[in-house]
Design a protein that fits this description.
Number of strands of chain B: 11
Mean pLDDT of chain B: 86
Number of domains of chain B: 2
Number of strands of chain A: 0
Shape of chain B: globular
Largest interface: A-B, 34 and 50 residues
Structural class of chain B: alpha+beta
Low-confidence stretches of chain B: 5-17
Distance between the termini of chain B: 57 Å
Mean pLDDT of chain A: 90
Order of helices and strands of chain A: HH
Order of helices and strands of chain B: HHEEEEHEEEEEEEHHHHHHH
Distance between the termini of chain A: 193 Å
Shape of chain A: rod-shaped
Largest sheet of chain A: none
Largest sheet of chain B: 4 strands, antiparallel
Number of domains of chain A: 1
Oligomer: heterodimer
Number of helices of chain B: 10
Helix content of chain A: over 70%
Chain lengths: 164, 351
């Protein structure tokens, strides 16, 4: 029967020991432990939240970057196209110019050749005329070296005039 | 467990005074409190730690070592036998670990197996259970204090060492026992109590399962201890019970007026049945565990044949392992139900 009857002495000691244990643990164990653990839990939750936020930011940032990249690519293509066009134009113009230049040179050369030729011709003509005169003088000299010959010539000439 | 050896010794040595092995007396002796902590050797004259006796008598407080009782004169009076104190314990007699004052003739009187007519002084002795209580509480404090020191030294980091082992349990009590059963805004106040009660019961349950010193005391299976713990829960419920709680007792909503004379007494009884159930549950579970293990080991001594150990030892081992589970389970249940009752007492009205 006394198994199920509380014993005053043990009850007394249990009360003292349990209450002091409760007080001591609450002050020196539960408070610091729970504070540390809950603080850690909060910091972990905050860190997770921050990570989530950062991920979102990264996402928008990436989208922005993509857009910027796309625009840059388009711009580059545009620039390249322009440059090609310009360079093509320039090459074309240079070709044209060089052709013109060449034509000019050829023309100038032709002109100079022509004038040179004319000069040469004139000189030649003079030479030929002089030579002809010389030859004619020589011929005449021989022709008119005797009286008969002078007479014959005069006759010849007179006959020519008569025929007209 | 050591006193089994002593029983065996007695049987071997004292063939001439072979008395019948009384299982129930042996078991009752082991699950009850004692003024000595028996270590080994025969029951009378073996090695024991004699614990201090503190008595509050009419002449004031008397303190002496219990060895003056155990080593006193063993008086047989019919079926009953008791120790008569010597030296500083002169004038006191101990019958079944209860200390009485001897009468003018220096004797105890019995009536139907109980002491009758002798004055029983208030016994504040540091008994086996009180010693176990000191050891268990000291252990709980040291374990938790080292945990706290870890956090103090390392800050709010991932736990290591003892804190790594205790933190999940502490968090379990906080989140799954306190927070789950008590209003979100009010649970914080009760967490220290629930934590203390959980670890106090658990560690002392485990200590009780160790068959040798500093274990083996049946502390949490003692009605005084469970009575105190249940009373504490009751006090916390009564102190913290709000308007809604008292309203449900004295003016149960939705109950016809005619039924109130029946309902109110039932509700009032209900206040006390909850902690009463807590008290009985812990006491009965732990005591039953001790009794089963002792009974299984006793098979050997009843049959007086060591070969029975092949049966009783594996069975006792199995029950011991089961008791490890029960030790944690009962601590959990006590804390859980305390939280549940407290939660019901502080719950706000929601209709």
């Amino acid at each position: 029967m006394d198994l199920v009857l509380p014993d005053f002495g043990l009850l007394f000691w249990t009360g003292i020991v349990f209450c002091s244990l409760l007080f001591l643990l609450a002050k020196f164990a539960w408070k610091p432990i729970l504070n540390a653990v809950n603080e850690r839990g909060n910091s972990i939750a905050e860190a997770l939240e921050l990570a989530e936020k950062t991920r979102e930011e990264m996402k928008t940032l990436k989208a922005e970057n993509d857009q910027i990249l796309k625009a840059a690519k388009a711009e580059r293509d545009e620039i390249l196209k322009d440059a090609k066009q310009t360079s093509n134009g320039m090459i074309e113009a240079a070709k044209e110019k060089s052709k013109e230049e060449a034509q000019k040179i050829v023309d100038a050369a032709r002109d100079s050749i022509r004038s040179e030729k004319a000069v040469a011709m004139a000189e030649l003509k003079t030479h030929v005329a002089a030579l002809s005169l010389e030859i004619a003088e020589k011929v005449i000299r021989t022709e008119l070296s005797s009286d008969e010959k002078q007479k014959a010539l005069a006759n010849n000439l007179a006959s020519d005039i008569n025929m007209n | 467990m050591s006193s089994f050896v002593s029983i065996a010794n007695e049987h071997e040595a004292g063939g001439h005074e072979e008395k019948e092995f009384d299982v129930s007396e042996m078991i009752m002796h082991h699950v009850k409190d004692a003024h000595e902590w028996h270590l080994w050797g025969p029951e009378h004259g073996g090695t024991s730690i004699y614990l201090p006796v503190i008595l509050k008598t009419e002449d004031g407080i008397k303190t002496f070592s219990s060895s003056h009782l155990y080593h006193g004169e063993l008086v047989h009076e019919g079926e009953n036998h008791y120790y008569k104190g010597v030296g500083p314990a002169e004038g006191f007699g101990m019958f079944h670990e209860k200390i009485y004052q001897l009468d003018a003739h220096g004797a105890l009187h019995f009536e139907e197996g109980h002491v009758h007519g002798n004055v029983k002084p208030l016994d504040f002795s540091i008994t086996k259970n009180v010693t176990s209580l000191f050891i268990g509480s000291f252990l709980v404090f040291i374990i938790m204090f080292s945990c706290a020191r870890f956090y103090k030294n390392n800050g709010a980091v991932a736990p290591r060492g003892i804190a790594k082992f205790m933190e999940p349990l502490i968090l379990f009590v906080q989140d799954d026992i306190a927070k789950a059963n008590i209003n979100e805004k009010k649970y914080k106040k009760f967490v220290p109590f629930l934590l203390t009660i959980f670890f106090f019961i658990w560690i002392n349950n485990l200590l009780g399962l160790i068959p040798i010193f500093p274990g083996s005391a049946n502390l949490t299976g003692n009605i005084s201890v469970t009575f105190f713990l249940a009373c504490l829960t009751l006090i916390i419920i009564l102190v913290n019970g709000n308007k809604n709680y008292w309203g449900h007792i004295f003016a149960p909503p939705g109950v016809p007026k005619a039924l109130l004379p029946i309902m109110i007494p039932i509700e009032i009884v209900g206040i006390f049945t909850k902690p009463f159930a807590l008290m009985i549950r812990l006491f009965a579970n732990i005591t039953a565990g001790h009794i089963i293990i002792l009974a299984l080991i006793s098979i050997i001594f009843i049959n007086k044949n060591v070969a029975w150990g092949a049966l009783s030892v594996p069975m006792a081992l199995f029950i011991s392992v089961l008791e490890l589970l029960v030790a944690a389970l009962q601590a959990y249940l006590f804390a859980m139900l305390s939280a549940l009752f407290i939660g019901a007492a502080v719950e706000d009205a929601h209709h």
